[in-house]
Amino acid sequence: MAYLIQEIFWYLAVAFVLGAIVAWLLCKQQCEKKLAALAASIPADNRAGTPVETIEGIGEGFGRRLKADGITTTEELLQLCSSDDGIARVCKCVDLDADTVRNWGTMADLIRIRGLGGQWAELLWRAGVRNVQDLATRDIGELRARMREVNEKEHRVAELPGEKRVARFIEEARQLQPVLHD
């Protein structure tokens, strides 16, 4: 009988430890989701300092070149991309054409929207959105259809933003001051 009780005790102890591990993993996952939601809720004005490498296509190599020229954030890149002289400066710095730099400027402009990161900014750009003013005029259904179409062909993001999120992006774009001009 003592042997049976001892066996039951060990099984319960193992079950308790496994349960604690599973609970910890689930809690950690929920905490990460809450932190991501909190980060997305910070107003764009308070997120100054977004690293320039956040923009799809810049990466470490171009990021080093930009930083060596004093361009460390997406906000700084956006300001430069708002003028022909600034675009020329960035082109010279990274030894790329003006169209590529303008594309980076578009993505830097779109990243100003809360919750809109580098990959979604690139997807919007590939879907034809050229700045926040352009995004502000888009129809939700048509834009989501175009994003889906582009993503099916090019596999840019793992998950498309939902209708409510795209609607929020459009609404916030309406409230932002224009930086890039058509």
Short description:
By secondary structure, the chain is mostly helical. Helices cover 68% and strands 0% of the residues. The longest helix is centred in the N-terminal third of the chain and has 40 residues, at 2-41.
Please tally the β strands and state the result: 0
For the largest beta-sheet, the strand count, sense and barrel status come to: none
N-to-C span? 84 Å
Overall geometry comes to elongated
Radius of gyration: 23 Å
Q: Report the sheet-strand fraction.
A: under 5%
List low-pLDDT spans: 43-47
Secondary-structure element pattern, one letter each: HHHHHHHHH
Number of structurally distinct domains: 2
The helicity comes to 55-70%
User: What is the residue-mean pLDDT, rounded to a whole number?
Assistant: 87
Please count the helical segments.
Answer: 9
Structural class: mainly alpha
Question: Mind explaining what this structure looks like?
Answer:
The model is unreliable at 43-47 (pLDDT under 50). Helix 8 (140-154) crosses helix 9 (163-175). This protein starts with a helix and ends in a 7-residue tail after the last helix. The chain folds into two domains: 1-41; 48-175, no CATH class. The chain has helices at residues 2-41, 59-68, 74-80, 84-94, 98-110, 118-126, 132-136, 140-154, 163-175. It is an all-alpha fold and 182 residues long. It has nine helices and no strands.
List strands and helices in order, with pairings.
Layout: H1 2-41, H2 59-68, H3 74-80, H4 84-94, H5 98-110, H6 118-126, H7 132-136, H8 140-154, H9 163-175
